[in-house]
Structures are given as structure tokens and as C-alpha cells.
Design brief:
Methane Monooxygenase Hydroxylase, Chain G, domain 1
């Protein structure tokens, strides 16, 4: 347990940021899972409308350094590839 006031405050701030980051990651995972379910069900019309939301969430998470920007770009590329492949 830290003794200094600054250490106590940094622990509080880190805990708050951690919970916010987990919330963003959880929402992102739910949206991605929903998108992948639409693709597996061959429902491309709804998947095309959902992909903009997925891209937005990926970009926001990368901007806040919750995920690495290269990871966001790689995922976006793979999702577009899966969406554009003929089924």
C-alpha cells in the first residue's frame, strides 16, 4: 500500500482509467462479435451497415491508446477483406 499522497492519487486515477478502458474494450468486442455473426450468417447487407460502427469504435480505441493503432488498422483491413469476399 503506498504511503505518499501522490501515489494514492495515481492509484485512484489508474483504477478509474482501467475500468473505463475495460468498458470500451467490452463494447468493441460485442460489436465485433455481432459483425462476425452477421458474416457467418451470410447477412452482408446488415454487416455493411454495422461495419461503420465497428470502424468508428476501433478508431476511437486506437486514438485513446486502448489498443495499438496498427492493431486497429489490421483489424479493419481483415474485416473489409472478409466482407468483400464472395460467399
Amino acid at each position: 500500500m503506498p504511503r505518499r499522497r501522490t501515489s494514492l492519487k495515481s492509484n485512484r486515477v489508474n483504477k478509474k482509467k482501467h475500468t473505463q478502458n475495460l468498458k470500451v474494450k467490452g463494447q468493441l468486442k460485442k460489436t465485433i462479435k455481432k459483425f462476425q455473426e452477421l458474416l457467418s450468417a451470410k447477412n452482408t447487407s446488415e454487416a455493411k451497415t454495422l461495419i461503420s460502427k465497428v470502424f468508428s469504435q476501433l478508431d476511437k480505441a486506437a486514438k485513446k491508446n486502448i489498443i495499438h493503432p496498427a492493431t486497429a488498422n489490421r483489424r479493419k483491413s481483415r474485416f473489409m477483406r472478409r466482407l468483400s469476399l464472395p460467399r
